[in-house]
From TrEMBL:
SUPFAM superfamilies: MCP/YpsA-like. It comes from Jingyaoa shaoxingensis. This is Cytokinin riboside 5'-monophosphate phosphoribohydrolase. The keyword Hydrolase applies. Its EC number is 3.2.2.n1.
Length: 180
């Protein structure tokens, strides 16, 4: 299974992020899954790819040309797909994914996972969309989704397939249930 993970090219200030991203990558690699991610060697992105590779897994990076020109690509990964821009990158990452995880990240991570959420809502995608709510990182987004339903601007049906997982055990359970 191809697991698309969205996350930042920075490490963040919380050391538990590094530990959790390495744990996630090890699980992906050891369980015969393949990682699809943004292709960078820096920050949490690089640590995730490295841990998948160390665990014997395959890693596909999808990176726009301007990042490659700036030297951000991770040369040790299994495969690098170079796109013309970020829009093409997002499309390709969704096309390749069988499950989607948003690890704590910045605005790019948020933009990418909300596109997945929108496609689920429109029934243009049938795959689990998991927000890794490590240390409550996505609590505010979870509240916003509930608020959208309360306001009549979304429905529970439109949000089917969107999950919040507090730890790797919950991620595994969701993926196994949805793709089992």
């Amino acid at each position: 299974m191809n697991i698309t993970v969205y996350l930042g090219a920075l490490e963040g200030k919380d050391h538990t992020l590094t530990e959790a991203v390495r744990e996630l990558g090890t699980w992906i690699g050891e369980n015969g899954h393949a990682l699809v991610y943004g292709g960078s060697k820096s920050g949490l992105m690089g640590k995730l790819a490295e841990s998948v590779l160390e665990a014997g897994g395959e890693v596909t990076g999808v990176e726009p040309q301007f990042f490659v020109d700036a030297g951000f690509q991770y040369d040790a990964i299994t495969r690098l797909i170079v796109t013309k821009d970020m829009t093409e990158r997002k499309t390709k990452m969704i096309e390749l994914g069988d499950a989607f995880i948003a690890f704590p990240g910045g605005t790019g991570t948020l933009e990418e996972i909300t596109e997945v959420m929108s496609k689920l809502s429109l029934k243009h995608l049938d795959a689990p969309c998991i927000l890794y709510n490590l240390n409550g990182y996505y609590d505010s987004l979870k509240e916003l989704l509930v608020h959208m339903i309360k306001m009549g601007l979304s429905t529970e049906e439109k949000q089917e397939g969107i999950y919040f997982a507090e730890n790797l055990g919950e991620i595994k359970r969701i993926i196994e249930t949805e793709n089992g």
